[in-house]
Amino acid sequence: MNPDASTVDTVIDAVSAVFMIVGAVMSLAAAIGLLRFPDLMSRMHSATKPQVLGLFLLLAAVGLQLRTWWVWPVLLVAWIFQLLTVPVSAHMVGRAGYRTKHLHKELLSSDELEAVVLKAAQAARDAEPDGGNRAAG
Amino acid sequence: MSRQRISLRQELPLLVWLVIVWGALWQDFSPGNLLFGALLAAAVARLFYLPPVELSGRFNVLRAVPFAVMFIGRVAAASFQVFYLAVAQGPKVTNAVVAVPLRSHSDLMVTATGHVISLIPGSLVVEVDRSTSTLYIHGLNVRNADDVLKLRTEVRDTEAGLIRVMGTKEELAALNQEVAA
After folding, report:
1. Closest chain A CA to residue B101
2. What is the spatial distance between Cα B88 and Cα B116, in angstroms, rounded to a whole number?
């Protein structure tokens, strides 16, 4: 046996403990953001993003603790799927939220999308004389 | 089938990815299992046909590794920043929706830039204009014109990094010219 095995164990335990605590703190950050932020769009930031890092840290801690190489591909695939799906869901909710006006305009310091959306809505109304109730864009 | 098939070389990254997922799910990377996975991947890619992704045929590993490290670093830094904003500012936070015109017009590059910028906390893609390849980004804690400029530069820099990793030769040449100018 390697005489340093227990030292290595301690280091791995310490690193995974730090990863787990920081990962859990990231989930806490998301929860606090959900409660504190004023509108849907800013809540989306905290609802979707800090958990990308939180999940990464927790999965890394799991990988470190299990000490078998074959869990790493599973954990990596889980994280990559998270990376692929989180922006899509955030975008869909954000897009719908913007168009259904679930945001506080007075909290925006500038809005370069408003004119574009109004123009697209106008174009859709012009194209469809029957009221144009189809969503713009 | 009358639909045009894409070449094996273009399909290969997708097949390799499917085989990796198969191996990871079974937690078994023995040759027999991988071969069976490859057969299944080929069958799936043939039966459930999707529009082909137009890859540029370039992938610079030396640029990809620092980009990935920088990406994780920025996700970490921005996560703590959002945490701080949630605690310190909360309901009083000021945001902005910023239009960022991108250089590249390839769907893959616009999607990749949108993904990376969405994964970094504090910015969120609200709308994509495919015809002009413009991203409309909702930025957290954007208080004035300076912050708007900073957010726009950040997105453009992210795109530049992605072009260096996997853009086409033309995009790379245009980018180098822009940097040199």
Report:
1. A112
2. 26
Interface test with chain A among B19, B85, B92, B126, by most A beta carbons within 10 Å:
B126
Q: Write down the H helix ranges in chain B.
A: 8-26, 31-47, 61-88, 107-119, 145-166, 169-180
pTM beyond cutoff 0.80: no
**Are B27 and A83 inside 8 Å of each other by CB?**
no
CB of A71 within 8 Å of any CB in chain B? yes
Q: What is the pLDDT of residues B91-113, one digit of tens each?
A: 888 888 888 888 888 888 888 89
**Cβ-defined contact of A90 to B118 (cutoff 8 Å):** yes
Contact B55, B13 (CB under 8 A): yes
CB within 8 Å: A112 and B142: no
Beta bridge partners of B135: B100, B128
d(CA A9, CA A14): 8
* ipTM of predicted complex: 0.79
